[in-house]
């Protein structure tokens, strides 16, 4: 049996738009730890399924897509580059269409099971920052520090609109808000690994906080618990 690494893990869960992705990446860079963007794995599964003509309600076929996923994450100074079947999918997997499909795919038990071991393999010394929706409740239940980030749906819609405008996409705020609320409801109501804070998670509302403030706060929490030395 393969020995499971017991490297320190910080889990950061929460709904889309709470700042998990950027905050997790910046914190991992500061600490020199590995980074798991679990949402990217589900987005890649959804994207690969679409490209191979697999329906989003075909659980068996989707699980096979997840198991055979040819995905590579390349750390770069400006962020993480994501490759699917050898081609750059970094921007494509962040579209609203792929995000919505990923939310549907993530509700399927067989898909979640197919990706579970792959996610746990990211746990390597010196430590791991795990970003997702069930990192603390399912994937790394023994993590010594679990955080649940949240923000108001309105603020998350504004953030998403700003992100899209930065890449030249004009998005309607009302439509974005409805999509976020629908995705929240689907993620929280799914039968397997629903979106919720772990019982021992620290809740942190980022609505009125800047990204640097949140990164500093998480660094303080790790330092206070002796899990990392502050920088």
Characterization of this structure:
By secondary structure, this protein is of the alpha/beta class. The chain is built from 9 helices and 8 strands. Helices cover 46% and strands 17% of the residues. Strands 2-6-1-7-8 form a 5-stranded parallel β-sheet. A hairpin with a 2-residue loop joins β4 and β5 (87-88). The chain is globular and about 50 Å long.
Order of helices and strands: EHEHHEEEHHEHEHHEH
Outline the biggest β-sheet: 5 strands, parallel
Q: Give the radius of gyration.
A: 17 Å
Strand tally: 8
Could you estimate the helical fraction of the residues in percent?
40-55%
What's the mean pLDDT score?
91
Q: Uncertain runs with pLDDT below 50, 5 residues or more?
A: none
Distance between the termini: 37 Å
Bulk shape:
globular
How many helix segments? 9
Q: Spatial order of the strands in the main sheet?
A: 2-6-1-7-8
- The percent range for strand residues is 15-25%
Secondary-structure class: alpha/beta
Please specify the SSE layout and strand pairing:
Elements (H helix, E strand, L loop, with lengths): L7 E6 L6 H12 L2 E4 H14 L7 H9 L3 E6 L2 E6 L2 E2 L7 H10 L3 H12 L6 E6 L2 H5 L5 E6 L2 H14 L6 H17 L12 E4 L5 H14 L7
Parallel strand pairs: 1-6, 1-7, 2-6, 7-8
Antiparallel strand pairs: 3-4, 4-5
Helix pairs in contact: 1-9, 2-4, 3-5, 7-8
Overview in brief:
By secondary structure, this protein is of the alpha/beta class. It has helices spanning 20-31, 38-51, 59-67, 96-105, 109-120, 135-139, 153-166, 173-189, 211-224; strands at residues 8-13, 34-37, 71-76, 79-84, 87-88, 127-132, 145-150, 202-205. It has a five-stranded parallel beta sheet with strand order 2-6-1-7-8. A three-stranded antiparallel beta sheet has the order 3-4-5.
């Amino acid at each position: 049996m393969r020995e499971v690494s017991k490297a320190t893990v910080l889990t950061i869960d929460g709904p889309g738009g709470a700042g998990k992705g950027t905050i997790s990446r910046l914190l991992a860079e500061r600490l020199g730890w590995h980074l798991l963007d679990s949402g990217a794995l589900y987005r890649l599964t959804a994207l690969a399924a679409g490209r191979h003509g697999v329906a989003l309600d075909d659980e068996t076929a989707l699980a096979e897509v997840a198991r055979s996923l040819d995905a590579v994450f390349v750390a770069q100074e400006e962020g993480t580059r994501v490759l699917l079947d050898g081609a750059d999918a970094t921007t494509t997997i962040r579209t609203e269409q792929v995000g919505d499909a990923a939310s549907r795919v993530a509700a399927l038990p067989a898909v979640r099971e197919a990706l579970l071991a792959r996610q746990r393999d990211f746990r390597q010394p010196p430590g791991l920052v795990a970003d997702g929706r069930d990192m603390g409740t399912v994937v790394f239940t023994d993590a010594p520090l679990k955080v649940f980030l949240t923000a108001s749906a309105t603020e998350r819609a504004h953030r998403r609109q700003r992100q899209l405008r930065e890449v030249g996409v004009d998005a309607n705020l009302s439509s974005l808000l409805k999509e976020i609320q629908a995705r929240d409801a689907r993620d929280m109501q799914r039968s397997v690994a629903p979106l919720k804070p772990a019982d021992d998670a620290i809740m942190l509302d980022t609505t009125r906080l800047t990204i640097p403030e949140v990164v500093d706060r998480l660094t303080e929490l790790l330092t206070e618990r002796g899990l990392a030395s502050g920088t």
